[in-house]
Amino acid sequence: MTNNSLISFTRSLIRCPSRYGEEGAVVELILAEMTRLGFDRVWRDANGSAVGVIETGRPGPTILLDGHCDTVGVAPGVTWAHDPFGGEIEDGFIYGRGAADMKGSIAAMIHAAAGLDRSRLRGRAVVSATVMEENLEGAALKTVMDAVSPDFVVIGEATDLNLNRGGRGRAEIHLETIGRPAHSSTPHLGRNAVHDMLRVVAAIEGLPMGRDPLLGPAIIALTDIISDPYPAYSVIPSRCRVTYDRRLLAGDTADGVLGDLRGLQDLEGLGIDLRATIAQGEHTTYTGALLSGPKFLPAFVFEEDHPFVQAALTGLAAAGRAPQIGAYRFCTNAAYSGGVAGVPTIGFGPGREEDAHVIDERVAVEDVLAAERGYRGIIEAVLA
Fold first, then answer.
1. Could you give the angle at which helices 3-14 and 104-114 cross, rounded to 10 degrees?
2. What pTM was computed for the model?
3. Which of 25, 119, 156, 321 is surrounded by the most beta carbons within 10 Å?
4. CA nearest 141: which of 297, 369, 32, 31?
């Protein structure tokens, strides 16, 4: 197993399109690589995620390294300077959709686990390449965790090779106003649900948002608005719905977030019929499995002195790194492992958050190689 092998595998993954819901071919590549490198057990779970296990043969903890193998698509008509599925190398970078988000990380995880000196370790290392993360963070990871019961989780999303001990969560919120229809020639006989919603939106713009010293600010952002009936022909709309993306901080709850919206002080006395709900996610994987659940994906934070955070720092130092400690600003599969399940979770990966989903997505060759050394260091520190 050589560094050239790792980079070649990374490029192979990029050359295999794996838009969410279409990950079957890339999962085959991953399973084949795990088998070639000598993983003790390799399987595809019901959702279609790839899972591989390295056993040391001695009792000990289980550490799970997870990366999602699905990507966003490539927008039609948008020009890339590099083939999005070419895996080209230029000026020290590997280019292509998924390079940073997050095929370079998956390749590094697999090669790191395969290169362990098992004679010095106890327990087991598991690597998963999960599906449909772009649609519903954590849903496919839950299935993997139910199967392998990890004591510790490493999320491979981009950190610029720093160590993240927390991450913001995400909620998708639907707000609906209910009016009264009327002919548009006599609008005074009805109640325009859009007008009511505009008042709601204005009130939300002034809603105070919290801030966490590690996670940064909570955010609420309007992402769509639609009236009913649509299109409307000479009818005052009797219903209007907006969707908000709410970025969550540690301790935020669904009831608390919805309560803040339902209790907007600026709306008191206006008689607005406002309904607020958490959206429900429902997505079918390429195997036909259904992933579903509320789109409330909580934040997670583990203290800097947590034993797993300190072990990861020790392992990264042994790999020649002196990482800064931070947190994810976007939502990741850690919303489940750390936020819901409460399993000690950290983030470490090549690339930067802002490298995801962009034109000419790329990851540095040296960062992929460094990530492999870093993952191996973390595993060895935990399983020593």
1. 140
2. 0.94
3. 156
4. 297
